[in-house]
Design a protein that fits this description.
Elements: E1 3-8, H1 13-23, E2 31-37, E3 42-48, H2 51-57, E4 66-72, E5 87-88, E6 94-102, H3 105-114, H4 125-137, H5 145-156, E7 161-169, E8 175-180, E9 185-189, E10 192-196, E11 208-211, E12 217-220, E13 225-228, E14 240-241, H6 256-262, H7 264-275, H8 286-289, E15 294-299, H9 301-318, E16 321-326, H10 327-330, E17 341-347, H11 353-364, E18 368-373, H12 379-383, E19 386-389, H13 402-422, H14 430-438, H15 444-454, E20 459-464, H16 467-483, E21 486-491, E22 508-512, H17 519-530, E23 535-540, H18 546-549, E24 554-557, H19 566-584
Parallel strand pairs: 15-16, 15-17, 17-18, 18-19, 20-21, 20-22, 22-23, 23-24
Antiparallel strand pairs: 1-4, 1-10, 2-3, 2-4, 5-6, 6-7, 7-8, 8-12, 9-10, 9-11, 11-14, 12-13
Helix pairs in contact: 3-4, 4-5, 7-13, 7-14, 9-13, 9-16, 15-19, 16-19
Amino acid sequence: MCGIVGYFGKEPVEDILIKKLKLLEYRGYDSAGIAVKNSTSLKVTKAVGEISNLKAKVKPLNSAYLGIGHTRWATHGKPITTNAHPHLSTDKCWAVVHNGIIENYEILREDLIDKGHHFLSHTDTEVIAKLLEQTFANLPGDDSCDKYLTALVNTCNALDGSFALGVINKKADCVLFAKNNSPLYVAVNNGEFMMASDPTCFIGFSQSYFALCDGDFGMMTKSCLTFCDKNLNKIEKTPVELNLVYSGDTNDFNHFMLKEIYDSRRVIDNIIELYSKKETLSGFTKETFKRITNIKIIGCGSSYNAAVIGAKMMQERLGIDCSAYVASEFRYSPPTFGKNTMAIFVSQSGETADVLAALNLAKARGALTVSVVNVEHSALSKSTDLTMPLKAGMEIAVASTKAYVGAVVVLYVLALKFDSLIRKTGFDLQQLSTLKDLLQIEKEPEYQPIARLLSKADKLMMLGRGYDYYTALEACIKIVGTSYTSATPYFAGELKHGPLALVSKGTYVIAFATDNDILTKTLANAEETAARGAKLILCTPIELPKEQASRFVHIIKVNKIDGPLQTVLNIIPWQIIAYYMSLYKGNNPDRPRNLAKSVTVE
């Protein structure tokens, strides 16, 4: 959610800012803007919609050498140009870009209005710009860069909430920045400075970067990069090696979403390669787990859907209590847990605000914390006791596909590791090689007619039992998030307790039936809906008698693998179907409306 960039250097600043904002498109946005300055002037340009709209409006400011840019995902105020960042102070000297939410902005706004400030937008961010002006005016001393930094620190000390900030002033030769519960990174290279919400922006600019911690402030001038804390005490930071590869090319694919589905085999290969090395899991020892009596797995969206699969597989394999929780609920209605708990946090971005808040609660209660995360430089990865990377590579499309596959597979690896430590069963990843070979991504053309059919439906119902229900959960979130078609998962055995009332003539009901032990029951539930006019689609690896098979409009035959990894084979067709449903409805599958890749606010 939201992307911040900043630059101070020798290159045409507008070009740099636009280029780097393009790299942050994956985070989701509805508007964008930049502010640049030269020795005498400050210029702001904003546009609603695509970065290309902003680029078309930009007219370079002569001799501009520093600037800040922003992609906005609306939280306060509609996605219109007035609400787009950067926001200006009343005197139009301060320009601010902001990622996060200021919780006390209404109180601050009223106070600033009483002091004569005028507000143009409906955002919480504009408060920061006005407050900077007010704070700076009340500071003694000459207008040095240190005074501007002091104004930023004092301003932020008055803010409640989360923020990553980039700030410039018309009269100051510096770029200021601050971080609190929102990601922000900085890099330097031969007298040039850059900041960004993602270190990916530094590829081709620098070989290292500085990761900001909560409560960090700083500024870049022509001569130096300075960091300080909230008390203005200077702090030293150690640069981190930039070990990233940008995968921002769709290659032969029309969209990132489809490319990333096809990347799933490579992800499994990466996981096998990483976790076959003994040193990778060296932190997971028998002594580590002696105290563990229960496991909590926490995530949001697709990460939560992977978590429920992980919880079921671990409980079955280990025989200890294991449950999954939505991160936003875990914080406010936490279960009973403490020092005997292992808390596993699943996230693609590693910056999801609800997940990080849940992590803080788990750490406060003394739980052993583990992150299953794709972005290895993220706050989540750096904050847990143990980390298990997904190794999915950069995921651009908002709808998670390869990272979801990676999360399920890594949780499976973790279950194997637990089992090998507790029961001394051995640690064998051979089944992952089998899984990779059984993926049926190349059946893509067979799934397209199903997608076209379902794209015309008003609503879909998906049924399953056990792991099949969890597949239905993930299939629904993919379809809803890309095609905007209402799709709801139900436990197959719960139909008669309410959901059956939703079935009418022509309703499409999709049944997942991949477990032989409960196949008959699930099919019977599906046929209950057919008796009331539903059209049935089945996802199964099992060969049905001809007469029974004839009751289904389509049967998606998936390959069979023993155990919970069947969920990975089951979801691939539905990732592809969701992709094509989006296309058939005229949507952009990579950037669905109202959604963001990295949800850094609650």
